[in-house]
Amino acid sequence: MKKVILITGASSGMGKETAKTLIQEGHSVYTAARRIDQMQDLKALGGFPVPMDVTNIEDIRSVVDLIIKKEGKIDVLWNNAGYGLYGSVEDVALDEARRQLEVNVIGMAAVTQVVVPYMRKAKAGTIINTSSMGGKMYFPMGAWYHASKHAVEGLSDCLRLELKPFNIKVVVLEPGFIATEFGHVLVDGISKYATKSAYSAMINKIIEGTKKAAEKGGSSSPSVIANTVSKIVSSKKPKTR
Ligand code: NDP
């Protein structure tokens, strides 16, 4: 059955790859991100790119209004926008730490707050939140990213209980290493703090390890995520914890 789907963070990586799959499966797919130019190929395939910074509530409202006006509903929301900030707790500037939580956690909650009333009215819906294996585990130099993804886990688990009576499902994705633009942020982020940190030896070791793992092909293709999300979208009863 054709679904109306909103994906945040769809201008690259797993969001973009999954958007392609879902468009090709015949769904109405609204792809949101700041880099609208990066989504023109999705438009050519039949998708609907929309500009959205998840930290800007006006952007969020205007995208959701547009979808409701055109489609009358949103069946699936995939909160996928996010990035990784790396460095020691001692070194990472607090403004950057706030930005990490603002995008990965508050941004997710903001989009959810605007979409949920329509799903509640329809008594149906699926919300997919991208966490990470980093939402279950932790590594040195990853404090703010891990804090953000642990928060995504807690937020999603509470949301699932709150929305169950309204027949709205909440699914959490916990990917391992996937080859996307995310890896570049990881290395650049660590490098930035490596130059001044008392932990530079530890940081450089992580950078080397990350590079070696990448060379050995230690990450999966975004198509793995595309297949998973496609199954969740088409399933009447998505697997939930
Ligand atoms: P990419 O960097 O390729 O994609 C990130 C997406 O998030 C882009 O489309 C970017 O769009 C968007 N984004 C970032 N900031 C904002 C913002 N403020 N407002 C709107 N969109 C934003 O990485 P991935 O595909 O790997 O990442 C997708 C998700 O998967 C993230 O939440 C990440 O934490 C998570 N993840 C990634 C893993 C990996 O190994 N790759 C592993 C586990 C989880 P734009 O810049 O155009 O706004």
UniProtKB/TrEMBL annotation:
Q: Name one Pfam family in it.
A: adh_short
**One GO MF term attached to the UniProt entry:** oxidoreductase activity
Please state the span of the N-terminal signal peptide per the UniProt entry.
none
The protein's name is SDR family NAD(P)-dependent oxidoreductase
InterPro entries on file: NAD(P)-bd_dom_sf, SDR_fam
Q: Please report which protein family the annotation says this sequence is part of.
A: Belongs to the short-chain dehydrogenases/reductases (SDR) family.
Q: What NCBIfam families does this protein's entry cite?
A: PRK06182.1
* Keyword vocabulary terms for this entry: Oxidoreductase
Q: Record's PANTHER family?
A: NADPH-DEPENDENT 1-ACYLDIHYDROXYACETONE PHOSPHATE REDUCTASE (PTHR44169:SF6)
